[in-house]
Specification:
Residues 150-170 are annotated as: Disordered. By secondary structure, the protein is α+β, with helices and mostly antiparallel strands. It has three domains: 13-165, no CATH class; 172-313, no CATH class; 322-451, no CATH class. Helix content is 23%, strand content 24%. The protein is built from 13 helices and 20 strands. The protein has helices at residues 13-27, 67-73, 76-80, 83-86, 111-119, 178-183, 252-259, 277-281, 293-302, 322-331, 381-390, 392-398, 423-432; strands at residues 30-37, 43-50, 93-95, 128-134, 137-145, 156-158, 168-171, 174-176, 200-202, 204-210, 216-222, 235-236, 242-245, 267-268, 283-285, 309-313, 335-345, 354-363, 439-444, 447-451. It has a five-stranded antiparallel β-sheet with strand order 2-1-4-5-6. Residues 346-353 and 409-415 have low confidence and may be disordered. The structure holds zinc ion (ZN). Residues 177, 179-180, 192, 194-195, 199 line the site of zinc ion (ZN).
Length: 452
């Protein structure tokens, strides 16, 4: 048996609500709690993120009979789901927060009181009600059916709108979508590939990058078609179209590197789809040399997105460094075997036929003498450490002694570790003395020895 830390208690309803409203403030979105009267008079609840100015959806697909059950079930991903469609035509503004969002108070998170307050509108003529978290407080409104005329005839509309959010900057300029204007006279074309249904082509976008764990960055990007960027082609497409590379500031890959994550691991909030490589790397095919590549880039980034905003999730760094892993493993009273093969022959690799191979294994201290190095296959130490860390639980389980008289490793916060200051450098040096041959450094809590 391995002593594992006690799992944390599940969050309470106020804690769940606190998580949702805090993230709304950080992302500069509304959190909307809605109760809607369904045919047959049943009341259903829904919780979702929205962009200010987006109309209430025609139908609410909530399936919860109380705010408590809705809060108990909703996740951040669930509340973001569908944001692209809901806020496709919401007005688009730059995002300029003047400081961190105000945290909710205990009163703001009183779930029973909030539910009671929203249900105050439980009267026959009203279709429902909303509480909207914006700028650090709740705003309340009824929902009614609009009159029989006008563009929103027969739709569910709010009685009143909350004030504009404090983070709202200037509106993002746009032109009418040229393709919608020519293809549709009595409504929308089935699927406009240029604007993806927004009917506008924006000259800017707001890119929000978050790890959903407190780190949020808002980037306001604007193009000026009157002052186009003039860039030299970096490549040609097969048909001869030149391709230009935008300055690094406008590439998501650049920001991923700054955040210490791999660009290909960026995904869109709300859809979880990977960010497309063209947007990521800022490579723009320029069919007409007079076009502004930045305008093309930003109209593509904003098309089909909520309020012309690209919301991106960056993953949390998923592996410790080798030194951190050594401390962790030594704290468990176990040993770590780090194998390197320098100048490894790599038959079958088209780009590199020789390189480094790495492997990291967890083992019991008394197994250290019998450890037989395998041919290491990870192309970098980082990927070997990440793989070891990802399967650490299994590795620890496999080190549990079969002899019941042997002691079980338990975490030792006071355990001493004599790990070297630069374990990677030291192990690579050892590998260089034996090129083309696996070399293993076994790091136990009390010493280090080498196998070849
Ligand atoms: Zn269009």
């Amino acid at each position: 048996m391995v002593v594992a830390p006690r799992p944390p208690a599940p969050p309470t309803l106020p804690e769940r609500l606190a998580t949702l409203v805090t993230l709304a403030g950080q992302l500069c979105l509304d959190l909307v709690i809605e109760v809607r009267r369904q045919p047959g008079a049943a009341l259903t609840w829904a919780i979702r993120y929205d962009a200010p100015g987006a109309p209430p959806p025609a139908e609410q697909r909530g399936r919860f009979d109380s705010l408590g059950t809705a809060l108990d079930a909703v996740t951040v991903a669930g509340a973001l789901h569908g944001l692209h469609q809901r806020a496709l035509r919401a007005p688009a503004y730059l995002v300029i927060p003047d400081g961190p969002p105000s945290p909710p108070t205990t009163d703001d998170l009183d779930v029973q009181r909030l539910e009671k307050r929203i249900r105050t509108y439980d009267e026959p003529a009203v279709r429902g009600a909303q509480a909207i978290w914006r700028d650090g407080r709740w705003w309340h409104t009824k929902l009614r059916l609009s009159g029989p005329s006008g563009s929103d005839a027969g739709r569910c509309v709010r009685d009143r709108e909350p004030p504009e959010p404090s983070w709202q900057g200037p509106s993002i300029p746009y032109v009418d979508c040229p393709d919608c204007a020519t293809t549709s006279s009595n409504g929308l074309p089935p699927r406009c590939r240029t604007c993806r249904g927004a009917r506008r082509s924006y000259l800017g976008t707001v890119v929000t990058i978050t790890d959903l764990d407190g780190q949020v960055m808002h980037l306001n990007w604007l193009a000026d078609p009157d002052r186009p960027l003039r860039l030299s082609p970096v490549a040609l497409q097969p048909d001869g179209t030149p391709v230009v590379a935008l300055p690094s500031h406008y590439r998501l890959a650049h920001w991923a590197h700054i955040l210490g994550v791999r660009p290909e691991h960026l995904t869109e909030l709300g859809t979880s789809a990977p960010v497309d490589p063209g947007s990521r790397d800022g490579l723009i095919p320029l069919a007409d040399a007079t076009d502004d590549p930045l305008t093309l880039h930003l109209s593509r980034l904003s098309a089909g997105r909520p309020a012309a905003r690209l919301l991106v999730r960056s993953p949390l760094p998923d592996a410790p460094t080798l030194a951190e892993l050594i401390r962790l493993v030594h704290g468990l009273g176990l040993a770590l075997a780090v194998t390197v093969e320098v100048d490894q022959r790599r038959d079958g690799f088209s780009l590199r036929t020789r390189g480094e191979g790495w492997q990291v294994d967890v083992l019991r201290v008394d197994q250290a003498d019998r450890f037989a190095p395998q041919r290491p296959y990870h192309p970098s130490l980082a990927s070997a450490v990440a793989a070891c860390y990802a399967y650490l639980e299994l590795a620890i389980a496999s080190t549990v002694p079969t002899d019941p008289r042997q002691p079980i490793p338990v975490p030792q916060s006071s355990a001493t570790s004599i790990a070297p200051d630069d374990p990677e450098g030291m192990i690579r040096q050892l590998g260089r003395r034996h090129p083309g041959q696996p070399v293993t450094a076994i790091l136990t809590p009390t010493g280090c020895h080498v196998h070849t």
